[in-house]
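tool_call: predict_structure(chain=1)
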Amino acid sequence: MSSARPLRADARRNREALLAAAREAFLSGDTDSHVEEIARSAGVAVGTLYRHFETREALIEEVYRQEVDELCAAPAALLERYSPEEALRRFLLLLVEHAAVGKGMSVALESIMATASPVFEAARTQMADALTQLLDAGVTAGVVRDGVTGPTLLRALGGICGMRATEGWQDEARQITALLFDGLRYGTAG
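tool_result:
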């Protein structure tokens, strides 16, 4: 029984190494990276990769899910550190950065878009909930206008981030996001 515990720790390390290697490959734009290359980068055998992830698509899903989980954990930390208004502003910019990361993963993500994967629906829900948390804090503090929902704000940001196919899009997206942020504060005392 005592030998099972190190194996579990070993398996956890292998899984984390595989996710880190896949994340690095996908985010760097190496979306054609084969599972053999990812396993080699992680320092494990291909069989180990397949023990943790049945398919390449399952690996991509988990990398994306981790990205979204990290992003959507940010509002609570931002609200602890900043005013509701500043927390919202910073999170809007994080969403633009997330879209930049998504651009690096876009080809890899296309492979799971064709599946019945709920990963995108879950991601949209998480992001909308994170925005709702920040909007509610801003409304309560009187620095954000009432009546805007997290899903509506996410759709607006989706339109902004949809510009990623154009050169220099991030600077323009940040400018448009600043306009959107100003609009969210219009008519408040703050």
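agent: Helices lie at 4-27, 35-42, 46-52, 56-81, 84-113, 119-141, 150-161, 169-185. Proceeding to next step.
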